[in-house]
Write a structure and sequence with these properties.
Blueprint (H helix, E strand, L loop, with lengths): L1 E5 L10 H15 L10 E5 L6 E3 L10 H8 L7 E5 L1 E3 L10 E3 L7 E5 L3 H12 L37 E2 L2 E2 L31 H13 L6
Parallel strand pairs: 1-2, 1-4, 3-5, 4-7
Antiparallel strand pairs: 6-7, 8-9
């Protein structure tokens, strides 16, 4: 890993190693079943505090956003570059400000994190980085009986079909049926779901997909 911390204001940094290390410790524990570990090799402070509120709206003239500007100056090849900012705004396709985002295999070796994102966000974005989709991918295309799990939803058959339905704490309360009339029973503790505060683990199928993308697509990483 190469960690980058963006200044909160002129020559001021409100986030550091003690803040993010517990999240990386959790991540290494989470990925230990496939013996994939993450080592922080370098930390760089970015003084351009205007990027602390990272604007993803492209410039009208150049077509570039603030991420492009930052990566042009602060980026190391063949490692995972992780950037900590206060907020991410004007994210295409998002109606809210996300806690982080990552590029799928074949994309940039970049994970963008908000400083308050926490361990779930880091684990969730690392899941995307190594090829995992949301458990509710497809918005209801995957059937509860699992008959089409290999080619719809998150493409992982041991994660139950999910529509990101209503819940009460970590109890699923949504009675919306799938096209066959079966009621969804999602795996609410899955890292790639959106059931706030319940997500703590991957399934075996997800571990297999993570490992495959590391070994076959992102195998150039140190």
């Amino acid at each position: 890993m190469h960690i980058y911390i963006v200044a909160s204001e002129f020559e001021t940094y409100d986030y550091g190693t003690a803040d993010y290390m517990p999240d990386w410790d959790f991540l290494n524990t989470l990925f230990d079943p496939i013996k994939l570990s993450f080592q922080i090799c370098e930390e760089t402070l970015i003084p351009e505090h205007n990027w602390n509120s990272l604007d993803k709206e492209p410039d009208i003239e150049t077509g570039l956003d603030e991420e492009n500007e930052m990566l042009a100056q602060f980026f190391q090849p063949n490692v995972i570059n992780v950037y900590y900012v206060d907020e991410i705004i004007n994210m295409p396709g998002d109606v809210t400000t996300p806690a982080g985002y990552a590029y799928f295999p074949g994309g940039l070796d970049v994970i963008m994190m908000t400083k308050g994102g926490g361990q779930w966000t880091l684990a969730h974005e690392m899941g995307h980085f190594f090829g995992l989709y949301h458990t509710f991918e497809g918005g209801g295309n995957e059937l509860v009986n699992g008959s089409n799990c290999a080619f719809t939803g998150d493409l992982v058959c041991d994660t139950p079909a999910d529509i990101n339905g209503n819940s009460d704490g970590c109890v699923y309360t949504d009675m919306t049926p799938d096209p066959n009339g079966d009621i969804y029973t999602p795996y609410m503790s899955n890292i790639m779901s959106y059931y706030g505060g319940c997500e703590i683990e991957f399934t075996g199928g997800q571990y297999n997909r993570l490992a495959w993308h590391y070994l076959n697509v992102r195998n150039y990483l140190w």
